[in-house]
Write a structure and sequence with these properties.
This is MAGUK p55 subfamily member 3-like. There is one protein chain. Helices cover 28% and strands 24% of the residues. The chain is α/β, with parallel strands linked by helices and 331 residues long. The longest helix is centred in the C-terminal third of the chain and has 17 residues. The site of guanosine-5'-monophosphate (5GP) has 9 residues, from strand 12 and strand 13.
Length: 331
């Protein structure tokens, strides 16, 4: 029987609650799951209902889940006429329903969050992503570690600390800047110092994974900077705006995405006096809604020391253990 076992695994990109699903042929036969769960698809014989097991609970019987095709069709018809911002909030409110939300590819360019959904073909439906087990081989390039976070998570500090403890294994990608070099700085160490003309041309040619302006100077991290860290066989850590995630999700980089969230106790969140905390909480929620499906691991940051320890242990496991990655990365 083992031989016949299905090798198809899917990462669920939406929550599913059969008991709230009016379309299912049998609510009791449904398999509930949450976004991020890995499902072993036992049968795709039926076009509408797959049979699947959750990998986490190994001996559980298979249950019915909506097929990818069916789920996509449902998304198209149920939210086609709803404005973008409502789709997000709808999908959030009805997280129990069989409804995933969609994001326009244009999102990653516009940082304002005002996405356009005019072009149907430019739309991605968050249903399932086929995944496979992947373990880094000794001679292979380390995976890229991408840290994203909400306001107040102070990710750069975290990243710098972990690298300083172990500079032979971990490194940052050296950014480009147009600001003048200071006397103690060395070209290619703190930054690559370039003229505005060169920077602009590089930006035009999509050489940066992200860039921004600070005190009238431009700063940006290039794809080459990541490659050059990896060429030294070190693990490269970057912290980026989540918009950059889609561009980084390639077989070359095999990014492992860590979402750093500050821990804000419920009791403090409620007190309106603490506006900063409220804003931090909202910003984390927003990132979670829009990009949560691309996140491999959430790191709740209580204080810097414990967050560093946790990050260190994640990085160590990353080189040793097996992880689920999109099938296209493991070919
Ligand atoms: P400084 O000029 O003091 O070295 O850096 C000033 C600021 O530039 C830093 O606080 C940091 O926020 C920003 N910065 C440094 N590197 C990058 C980068 O690669 N991308 C962006 N967007 N900002 C950067």
């Amino acid at each position: 029987d083992k031989l016949k076992e299905s090798k198809v695994y899917m990462r669920a990109l939406f929550d599913y609650t059969p008991l709230e699903d009016k379309a299912t042929p049998c609510q009791e036969a449904g398999l509930p799951f949450k976004r991020g769960d890995i499902l072993q698809v036992v049968s795709q014989d039926d076009q509408t209902w797959w049979q699947a097991k959750r990998v986490a609970d190994c001996n559980l019987r298979a249950g019915l889940v909506p097929s990818k095709q069916f789920q996509e069709r449902w998304d198209k018809t149920s939210i086609k006429h709803t404005p973008y911002y409502l789709k997000i909030s709808l999908s959030n409110k009805c997280s129990g329903l069989r409804r995933s939300f969609r994001l326009s590819r244009k999102d990653r360019r516009g940082s304002s969050g005002e996405a356009s959904v005019s072009d149907q073909n430019d739309t991605e439906f968050l249903t399932y992503e086929e995944v496979t087990r992947y373990q880094q081989k000794p001679n292979e390039r380390p995976r890229l570690v991408v840290l994203i976070g909400s306001l107040g998570a102070r990710i750069n500090e975290l990243k710098q600390k972990v690298i300083a403890e172990n500079p032979h294994r971990y490194a940052v990608a050296v950014p480009h800047t147009t600001r003048p070099k200071k006397s103690h700085e060395k070209e290619g160490v703190e930054y690559h110092f370039v003229t505005k003309q060169v920077f602009d041309a590089d930006a035009q040619n999509d050489k940066f994974i992200e860039y921004g302006e600070y005190k009238e100077n431009l700063y940006g991290t290039s794809i080459e900077a990541i490659r050059s860290v990896q060429a030294k066989n070190k693990m490269c850590l970057v912290d980026v705006q989540p918009e950059a995630l889609k561009a980084l999700r390639t077989a070359e980089f095999k990014p492992y995405v860590i979402f750093v969230k500050p821990r804000i106790p419920e009791s403090r969140r409620r007190r309106s006096a603490e506006e900063d905390l409220q804003e931090m909480h909202l910003s984390a929620q927003q990132t979670d809604q829009q990009y949560g499906h691309l996140v491999d691991r959430v790191l709740i940051k209580e204080d810097t020391a414990s967050a560093c320890a946790e990050l260190r242990s994640i990085l160590e496991r990353l080189e040793r253990e097996t992880f689920w990655v999109p099938v296209s990365w493991a070919k």
